[in-house]
Amino acid sequence: MKKKILIITITIVILILIGGGIFVKKAIEMGDPKNWGINPSKLPDIVTDKVLKKHHSELERIYGFQGKDVSKKDLSKVSLEVISNIGFDKSTKWPEKSKLPQGYDPDKWFDIGKDTGLNLSKIHEKGITGKGISVAVIDKPIRSTHNEFKDKMTYIKIGDQTNSHFHGMACASILAGKTCGVASGAKLYYFATPDSRDRQEYYMKAIDKIIDINKSLPKNEKIRIVSISDGVEKKDKYYSKWQETIKKANSEGLTVVYSNLLGEKKFTWGGCYASKNRDNPLNYEISNYLKQYRIDKSTIIVPGDFRTTASNSSDNDYVYWGEGGFSWAIPYVTGLAALAWQVNPNLTFDQIIDKLIETKTTTSEGLYIINPVKFIDSIH
What are the residue numbers of the active site? Predict the structure, then answer.
């Protein structure tokens, strides 16, 4: 019986991971962006945790108070845990300090959210930034002129284009953004694909395009790895063709990192509240979204929540995301691979994954979490 329960639990978790962040994907197809987030007019004057939890649909949870005016509301009774999961940006209008949760400083938290955490800054200080490694993201269209990627990103359109989308902007920021990125020194290629139900078809076209581009690049400049914060399930009509495309990419020396791949390796996501030291792995927790499930004890957390990334609003705008999702963890692991290849170009991606597993550490709750410093030290 216990074995059956464990199998069911693992299956549920993998299905969640395959979605690349289920709540993120649902937002793709719903409504007018101007109406996304929590509507202040529907909140009482005194806001509590209970009130905010009622406003917890996918879009409300993702967009939170972005662009909203909550200056007339009293948020002082809201806990730090709940407010941490509410997204916001610089256009959010907050009440005076006495009406904010004790210890909550939006400006400070906004800046802290750019920090990749887990002492990656110390790795960057040693010059290990992914310099000399070319990486790619395949995702929906974004503002390609954002300063986070200025002079370091090549933007390539695949298929008919749609409006700019937050999803790819966040993924690109976490992978190789100048101020938010794990591999902040890597050269970034961005392949913008349509926001379509047949998105996997365009992913495969983008991978074929990368293979063609690599044929014309010098060996030391070829795109080595591509991050796709999405998955292709076995029941999907594109599954067989997807497997063939991945096999072709691998034969050409290209690693494709996507949710199925990392989910099967039992990676998941979590985060560290901005009120705590995010360099200390003890302060990390599995994502609040996953706490409703029984998680396999061998699962390894990758940072994916409580991050600040570039925004599509303007070339200088950023946004704080409360809940991120597995979609944010995938480019994080991809970035770590770029750092590893700068140190040891001869490693295979499987060896990199093995090292990440071997060097894992634990949180205060006894869950496993990656340890970037120990990981990089292990491959010198």
Answer: 139, 167, 327
